[in-house]
């Protein structure tokens, strides 16, 4: 059975509204929620954006069932010993609902602006590999007991790795419980899916959801204007069309969908999507 996560970038919204949308998602049948991790809003350096782990903690406290994660935390922003400790703490506080999503970073402009991380993408992926090894050791999975932090994880903490590069895919095979395909790389899914095993596959999908009574042409126009740059990562349609689309992705091995709404996850969209798409899937 497919899993459904709301993908909700934490920008342009007050924190109270983010928590409110999370509660609506929970009530609508979503299994989880995921945020982004940036020091500035990509392409919008003047826009407000909230810190990723703090938002995840706040939403975990405001919900009861949703799993909480990110697509994905930037490895360069946190020392692996600190991140490992944060993950264990949030997992315990949420009764095992936290998943650690991690990647090498996708917005080099913020590295330069805030003097953090490395500009060389190869070096960033190599560092991610070193840090993944350390994090698993800090959680007590390694052979060196001196590396283990206390307390050890009380619950399993799934590792979600995002990206499609050759070096990243090697890390996916070695460490990931889940491999996530970014929306703008969905067209590469058939080619890359065999390389992800044994990780399970998820996709980030932008949706222009045509609700009952809405004008399909207007929804497609607004969605394309906002997110057409995603190419095949944007799908527009009513409930029946979306069920057909997601069914096609499951045939390619996808087991989880991170749904990113072109209307910024209006509560009405969440509830109708849950009733007509998630329950109708």
TrEMBL record:
Annotated GO molecular function terms are: alkanesulfonate monooxygenase activity
Per the record, the coiled-coil ranges are none
Q: Name one GO biological process term.
A: alkanesulfonate catabolic process
Q: Keyword Oxidoreductase, does the record have it? A: yes
Q: Which Pfam families match?
A: Bac_luciferase
Which SUPFAM superfamilies does the annotation name?
Bacterial luciferase-like
**InterPro entries, A to Z:** Luciferase-like_dom (IPR011251), Luciferase-like_sf (IPR036661), SsuD_RutA_monooxygenase (IPR050172)
The Luciferase-like domain covers: 14-187
Gene3D superfamilies the record matches: Luciferase-like domain
UniProt entry keywords in alphabetical sequence: Flavoprotein, FMN, Monooxygenase, Oxidoreductase
Protein's UniProt name: NADP oxidoreductase
Its taxonomic placement starts with: Bacteria, Bacillati, Actinomycetota, Actinomycetes, Mycobacteriales
């Amino acid at each position: 059975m497919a899993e459904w996560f709301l993908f909700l970038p934490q920008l342009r919204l007050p924190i109270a509204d983010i928590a409110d949308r999370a509660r609506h998602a929970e009530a609508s049948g979503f299994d989880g929620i995921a945020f982004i991790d940036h020091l500035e809003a990509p392409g919008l350096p003047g826009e407000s954006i909230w810190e990723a782990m703090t938002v995840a903690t706040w939403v975990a406290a405001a919900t009861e069932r949703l799993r909480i994660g990110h697509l994905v935390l930037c490895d360069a922003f946190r020392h692996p010993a600190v991140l490992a400790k944060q993950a264990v703490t949030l997992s315990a506080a949420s009764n095992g609902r936290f998943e650690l999503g991690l990647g090498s970073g996708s917005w080099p402009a913020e590295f330069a602006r805030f003097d953090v991380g490395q500009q060389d993408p190869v070096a960033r992926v190599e560092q991610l590999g070193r840090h993944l090894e350390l994090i698993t050791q800090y959680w007590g999975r390694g052979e060196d007991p001196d590396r283990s932090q206390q307390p050890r994880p009380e619950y399993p903490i799934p590792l979600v790795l995002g990206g499609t590069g050759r070096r990243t895919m090697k890390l996916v095979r070695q460490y990931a419980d889940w491999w996530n395909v970014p929306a703008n790389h969905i067209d590469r899914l058939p080619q890359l899916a065999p390389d992800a095993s044994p990780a399970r596959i998820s996709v980030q999908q932008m949706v222009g959801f045509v609700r009952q009574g809405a004008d399909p042409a207007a929804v497609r126009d607004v969605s394309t204007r906002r997110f057409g740059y995603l190419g095949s990562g944007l799908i527009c349609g009513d409930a029946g069309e979306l069920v057909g689309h997601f069914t096609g992705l499951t045939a390619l091995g996808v087991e989880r969908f991170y749904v990113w709404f072109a209307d910024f996850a209006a509560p009405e969209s969440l509830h109708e999507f849950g009733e007509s798409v998630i329950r109708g899937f």
